[in-house]
Design a protein that fits this description.
One of its GO terms (cellular component) is plasma membrane. The chain has 329 residues and is mainly α. The protein has ten helices and five strands. The longest helix has 37 residues.
Length: 329
């Protein structure tokens, strides 16, 4: 399993680098002028996906739920970081922070699209130094997530002992040579009684609040954007403009559904099933693969839904095939 997981994560990071670098090239060279500063946000999102996948191959995480716990585990067995547990924990926590940054970046894209559709001059809020402010929001969201994990979800002896037999049986990991970020909802006090850990519950609720802010932003601006597009179509907007707006909207919706499938829903179950006593330990391996695969597939909607990028990509492929056909003949 360890070899299979590493091979899968290595392929994912290579594919993520290739597809995101290709998309950055197409954004810079083939974007319609009407896209304006939206190009910068798209490039930023691609760079973030590259960072996400690169950090994933460094950590090579095991995402798991066991009993009353959930966690992201980093095996330090063959790592030089075994002598630097604080650094290893920070890197692991940073990978979980990428989860938060992803959602905030998507939310900002939805805000921009709605302002562009409104045509009331609000895109000025995305120009100059103000654009830097928007770009910093996902980073800030990730920092808050990491800080929460640092304060409330850092390794403690009780949880290490709780996970010891499970990580050894499932992944052949020595609990003394690992780091993790996660929580154990239900613990045992000195009298042998089971109690709900307030620290772990508060940590999970904090993460829920951090996630709900961009989630509701996406729902709100996504709904208003769709209605605005329908208005533009009914008002006889020229074919090119309404086609481009619809392409961008579809790409953004698809780019939201992908993390919903690969991140939000699986991780949401991972968060709360242990709290209410539902055993979903069978899903741990699947969620581990999903988390690693996400950065590789995330840029595909922009590549496939936006005509200028799709046509440029496939035309290059066609010319390449035709060249080899002539050479073979």
């Amino acid at each position: 399993f360890e070899s299979t997981k590493f091979a899968f994560q290595a392929v994912s990071v290579v594919f993520s680098w290739l597809i995101n670098l290709l998309l950055i090239y197409l954004i810079v060279t083939r974007s319609p002028k009407k896209m304006g500063n939206y190009r910068h946000l798209m490039v930023y999102f691609c760079c973030f996906s590259i960072f996400f996948s690169s950090l994933d191959i460094v950590v090579q995480p095991y995402i798991q739920t066991y009993g009353a716990s959930f966690s992201m585990v980093m095996d330090l067995k063959n790592s030089k970081l075994v002598d630097f547990p604080t650094v290893a924990f920070f890197i692991t926590a940073s990978l979980t922070g990428c989860f938060a940054s992803t959602v905030y970046a998507i939310a900002i894209n939805f805000v921009f699209r709605f302002f562009a559709l409104q045509r009331e001059g609000r895109l000025r809020y995305f120009r100059g130094f103000r654009l830097v402010f928007w770009i910093l929001i996902p980073i800030f969201g990730g920092i808050i997530w990491v800080t929460n994990n640092w304060l409330l979800f850092s390794p403690d002896p009780e949880m290490i002992e709780y996970l010891r037999s499970n990580v050894k049986e499932m992944y052949d990991i020595d609990a003394d040579k690992m780091t993790y970020t996660g929580c154990l909802y239900w613990r045992i006090d000195r009298f042998g009684s089971r109690y709900l850990s307030k620290k772990d519950l508060i940590g999970a609720l904090n993460l829920t609040v951090i996630m709900n802010i961009p989630f509701f932003t996406i729902v709100y601006f996504g709904t208003k954007s769709y209605r605005k597009i329908q208005e533009l179509i009914s008002q006889g907007e020229n074919d090119y403009s309404k086609k481009l707006q619809m392409q961008l909207y579809k790409a953004l919706v698809a780019q939201t559904l992908i993390p919903m499938v690969f991140l939000f829903i699986p991780v949401g179950f991972l968060f709360y099933c242990p709290l209410i006593g539902i055993d979903i330990s069978w899903s741990s391996l699947l969620i581990t693969f999903f988390y690693s695969f996400y950065p590789a597939v995330d840029p595909l909607p922009n590549l496939l839904f936006i005509d200028e990028y799709r046509n440029a990509f496939f035309s290059k492929e066609i010319r390449h095939l035709e060249f080899h056909k002539i050479e073979f003949s």
